[in-house]
């Protein structure tokens, strides 16, 4: 996972907007449909009420017409004398004066065979020329009249509101079967009968059939209780012919019928439809009349009856097209439009919000990336590494996998930084990052933890131990290759510590601690190597921690003591002084040598107070010695970084009364590696007050001869490792000889450390060394065991 961040998938970004749009659309449609249905229901109720009212009004209007025919019947039945033609015409004319739609009214008297001629003559006498009783024959266009055949009784048109010239005078209704049936129905039931009938001849104003209404008239004062009574006492019929469309239109006009309702009146239902004309309305107030009842039935409609006499005409009402009772679905439309607008707004808002939120999340991710990136190398930083480590740890139990952590610390990086500057150090770190990347797989996590520390999480290996050591070896080799920086070629290395999960722990803290311990071991083992953690390291750490605690206590309780080891002048064997070497008298562990606690004191920062104590004690002790004896005190590089060191030394001298010329400060080469300018100034200051300076352990570190010229040393102390080899390695003699020659040239003295044998001593003397120190002249011992008398001096002289 060298390229660690994968962008979040874009799919689903607009999903909320899409879902909202779909839901909004569905709700809008459902809402509009519901409102539409509600509108339908409300309109239907209103329409039904209006249609019913309309029907009642029409029925009342029709009843009014019928009642006028009944008035005529009353006239015939109540008159004592026969009603004359002119009385009939006058009365009829008045009755229907303001009632359009009444086409004509006729009086059909009941005439028997014997009365026929008499009636015919009377009509002619009344001015109806050529009057005779006729029968209607033929169909449609071929219809015509013929003299009615002999019959027991006739029901001819005798009086009529038609002009006397009309051919219909004398037409016997009984000769037309359906009219005869209506007459008989009316007679037998003493009820008004009606029928739909086409009139003879073309009808004014249209082709629609008319309605014949037949009212039976019985002889005055006769019984009509039984059918026989009615048949016997029948006097004739009053017949009204209605122009139904005109009549209904007139009713609607006079009653100010609602224009919202279109009324269609169909002929009485006969059980079968014999012609198209029968399915067409007899009356329609609609602007475009429906072509059939089917048309009406398909839409919103109301059905009822219009009773004319003994027959029910079918009434079907529909909302007038474009009228207020036609469902306009305007509310439903409003709901739909508002719903769509809200949906659109919501979807737009969600889309914008989603887009903004994505932008925000991208920005957040960028911030997160930056927060988890090491700016210098572009690698993940410590925060990312730790988070990833936690993540992998949390999956550890479920996955059953193992992984390794490799902690890397560059060797000698500090030198590059100090000597070539931070710019070069940065370039080097980038190059190291590139090399490390090249050694890793895509699934490995590489991070820079800070400074010259890198860390790797390596997972997915069959044998994690083998895999991680192979990787560490590969990395060590890669980093050991020279780096080309601008104008310089540098060589560094890397120390690596490895911890393996879950063997070495299953949480971040444990694993990092153990990888660090292993790294520490690599560092102390000589660098550019790798170490896998083992349990002994923890034990060591524990011991070290205990020791550190004890060390703090020891400083507070003054459990330290100084032992002194003499150094002698090679030429005469005379003792020239003592080196102060600190020891720790541990309450349970006894006397602990400085090798075992000085590094720890340095790491824990305790060397500063300890070093000050050594200085003061050594100066105080030396002040009691013979005036020709020097005291040499070791200073740690850590003490050198203390700004107060000069004041500490001055105070030790002042407080003890020891002349500065009797104090020799021993420093190691490592001190000279950094803060060169400050250290030089500090050393010059010590020299200026008379303190002598010795370069300790020469030959173990960098052994740069340039230090000898750059810093004002009085003495060089050749490390005992050279002396050890002196007798059997000619090279050591040559090195010592060179050092002596160089020191002499620089006006410096040379001390040989660790002289244990006479042979070594003689060889050193031959090489021109000035001073010697070692077990040959005495081991370090407490001050109270040192004899400053002549005996000591003579024994040493013997050695010389
Ligand atoms: N910063 C401070 N460092 C100190 C102080 N006191 C001691 N030290 C440093 O500790 C190192 C170990 O010291 P020590 O165990 O005391 O060993 C010294 C001698 O005992 C040993 N020595 C001397 N002669 C011989 C010999 O003939 N053979 C042999 N095997 N060892 C011998 O050498 C040590 C002295 O070395 P050096 O300092 O280089 O003169 C040591 O590095 C001390 O510097 C302290 O107070 N502060």
TrEMBL record:
<dbReference type="InterPro" id="IPR029787">
    <property type="entry name" value="Nucleotide_cyclase"/>
</dbReference>
<dbReference type="GO" id="GO:0016301">
    <property type="term" value="F:kinase activity"/>
</dbReference>
<dbReference type="Pfam" id="PF03924">
    <property type="entry name" value="CHASE"/>
</dbReference>
<keyword id="KW-0812">Transmembrane</keyword>
<dbReference type="InterPro" id="IPR035919">
    <property type="entry name" value="EAL_sf"/>
</dbReference>
<keyword id="KW-0418">Kinase</keyword>
<dbReference type="InterPro" id="IPR001633">
    <property type="entry name" value="EAL_dom"/>
</dbReference>
<dbReference type="GO" id="GO:0007165">
    <property type="term" value="P:signal transduction"/>
</dbReference>
<feature type="domain" description="GGDEF">
    <location>
        <begin position="401"/>
        <end position="535"/>
    </location>
</feature>
<dbReference type="InterPro" id="IPR043128">
    <property type="entry name" value="Rev_trsase/Diguanyl_cyclase"/>
</dbReference>
<feature type="domain" description="EAL">
    <location>
        <begin position="544"/>
        <end position="794"/>
    </location>
</feature>
<keyword id="KW-0808">Transferase</keyword>
<dbReference type="Pfam" id="PF00563">
    <property type="entry name" value="EAL"/>
</dbReference>
<dbReference type="InterPro" id="IPR006189">
    <property type="entry name" value="CHASE_dom"/>
</dbReference>
<feature type="transmembrane region" description="Helical">
    <location>
        <begin position="332"/>
        <end position="352"/>
    </location>
</feature>
<dbReference type="GO" id="GO:0071111">
    <property type="term" value="F:cyclic-guanylate-specific phosphodiesterase activity"/>
</dbReference>
<dbReference type="InterPro" id="IPR000160">
    <property type="entry name" value="GGDEF_dom"/>
</dbReference>
<dbReference type="GO" id="GO:0016020">
    <property type="term" value="C:membrane"/>
</dbReference>
<dbReference type="GO" id="GO:0071732">
    <property type="term" value="P:cellular response to nitric oxide"/>
</dbReference>
<dbReference type="InterPro" id="IPR052155">
    <property type="entry name" value="Biofilm_reg_signaling"/>
</dbReference>
<dbReference type="Pfam" id="PF00990">
    <property type="entry name" value="GGDEF"/>
</dbReference>
<keyword id="KW-0472">Membrane</keyword>
<keyword id="KW-1133">Transmembrane helix</keyword>
<protein>
    <submittedName>
        <fullName>Histidine kinase</fullName>
    </submittedName>
</protein>
<dbReference type="InterPro" id="IPR042240">
    <property type="entry name" value="CHASE_sf"/>
</dbReference>
<feature type="domain" description="CHASE">
    <location>
        <begin position="79"/>
        <end position="266"/>
    </location>
</feature>
């Amino acid at each position: 996972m060298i390229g660690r961040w994968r962008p979040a998938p874009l799919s689903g970004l607009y999903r909320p907007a899409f879902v909202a749009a779909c839901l909004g659309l569905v709700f809008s449609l459902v809402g509009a449909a519901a409102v539409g249905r509600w509108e339908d229901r409300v309109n239907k109720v209103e329409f039904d009420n209006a249609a019913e009212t309309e029907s009642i009004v029409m029925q009342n209007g029709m009843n009014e017409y019928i009642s006028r025919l009944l008035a005529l019947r009353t006239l015939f039945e109540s008159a004592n004398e026969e009603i004359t033609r002119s009385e009939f015409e006058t009365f009829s004319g008045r009755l229907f004066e303001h009632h359009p739609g009444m086409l004509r009214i006729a009086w059909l008297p009941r005439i028997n065979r014997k009365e026929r001629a008499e009636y015919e003559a009377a009509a002619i006498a009344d001015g109806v020329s050529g009057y005779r009783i006729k029968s209607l024959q033929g169909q449609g266009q071929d219809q015509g009249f013929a003299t009615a055949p002999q019959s027991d009784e006739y029901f001819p048109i005798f009086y009529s509101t038609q002009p006397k010239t009309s051919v219909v005078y004398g037409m016997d209704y009984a000769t037309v079967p359906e009219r005869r049936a209506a007459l008989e129905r009316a007679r037998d039931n003493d009820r008004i009968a009606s029928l739909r009938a086409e009139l003879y001849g073309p009808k004014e104003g249209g082709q629609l059939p008319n309605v014949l209404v037949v009212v039976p008239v019985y002889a005055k004062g006769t019984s009509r209780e039984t059918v026989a009574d009615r048949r016997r006492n029948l006097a004739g019929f009053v017949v009204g012919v209605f122009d139904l469309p005109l009549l209904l239109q007139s009713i609607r006009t006079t009653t100010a019928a609602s224009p919202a309702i279109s009324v269609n009146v169909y002929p009485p239902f006969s059980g079968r439809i014999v012609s198209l004309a029968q399915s067409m309305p007899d009356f329609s107030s609609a602007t475009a009349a429906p072509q059939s009842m089917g048309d009406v039935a398909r839409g919103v409609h109301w059905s009822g009856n219009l009773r004319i006499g003994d027959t029910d005409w079918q009434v079907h009402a529909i909302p007038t097209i474009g009228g207020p009772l036609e469902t306009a679905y305007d509310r439903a439309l409003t709901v739909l439009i508002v719903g769509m607008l809200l949906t659109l707004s919501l979807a737009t808002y969600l889309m914008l919000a989603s887009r903004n939120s994505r932008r925000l999340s991208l920005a957040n991710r960028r911030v997160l990336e930056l927060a988890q990136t090491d700016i210098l190398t572009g690698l993940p930083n410590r925060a990312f590494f730790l988070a990833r480590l936690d993540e992998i740890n949390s999956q550890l139990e479920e996955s059953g996998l193992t992984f390794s952590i490799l902690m890397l610390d560059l060797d000698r990086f500090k030198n590059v930084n100090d000597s070539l500057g931070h710019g070069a150090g940065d370039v080097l770190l980038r190059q190291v990052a590139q090399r490390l990347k090249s050694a890793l797989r895509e699934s490995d996590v590489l991070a820079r933890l800070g400074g010259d520390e890198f860390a790797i999480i390596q997972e997915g290996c069959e044998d994690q131990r083998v895999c991680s050591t192979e990787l560490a070896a590969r990395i060590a080799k890669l980093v050991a290759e020279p780096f080309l920086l601008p104008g310089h070629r540098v060589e560094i290395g890397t120390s690596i510590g490895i911890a393996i999960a879950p063997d070495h722990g299953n949480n971040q803290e444990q694993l990092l601690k153990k990888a660090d311990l292993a790294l520490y071991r690599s560092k102390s083992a000589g660098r550019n190597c790798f170490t896998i953690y083992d349990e002994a390291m923890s034990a060591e750490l524990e011991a070290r921690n205990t020791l550190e605690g004890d060390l703090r206590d020891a400083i507070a309780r003054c459990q330290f003591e100084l032992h002194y080891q003499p150094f002698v002048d090679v030429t005469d064997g005379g003792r020239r002084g003592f080196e102060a070497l600190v020891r720790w008298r541990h309450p349970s562990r006894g006397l602990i040598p400085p090798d075992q606690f000085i590094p720890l004191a340095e790491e824990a920062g305790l060397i500063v107070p300890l070093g000050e104590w050594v200085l003061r004690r050594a100066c105080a002790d030396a002040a009691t010695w013979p005036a020709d004896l020097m005291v040499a005190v070791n200073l740690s590089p850590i003490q050198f970084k203390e700004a107060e060191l000069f004041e500490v030394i001055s105070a030790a001298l002042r407080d003890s009364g020891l002349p500065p010329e009797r104090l020799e400060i021993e420093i190691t080469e490592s001190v000279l590696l950094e803060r060169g300018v400050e250290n030089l100034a500090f050393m010059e200051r010590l020299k200026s007050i008379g303190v002598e300076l010795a370069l300790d352990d020469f030959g173990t570190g960098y052994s740069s001869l340039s230090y000898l010229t750059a810093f004002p040393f009085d003495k060089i102390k050749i490390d005992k490792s050279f002396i050890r080899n002196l007798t059997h390695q000619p090279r050591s003699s040559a090195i010592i000889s060179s050092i002596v020659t160089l020191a002499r040239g620089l006006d410096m003295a040379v001390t040989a450390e660790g002289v244990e044998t006479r042979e070594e001593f003689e060889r050193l003397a031959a090489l021109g060394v000035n001073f010697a120190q070692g077990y040959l002249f005495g081991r370090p011992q407490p001050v109270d065991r040192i004899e400053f008398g002549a005996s000591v001096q003579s024994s040493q002289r013997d050695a010389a």
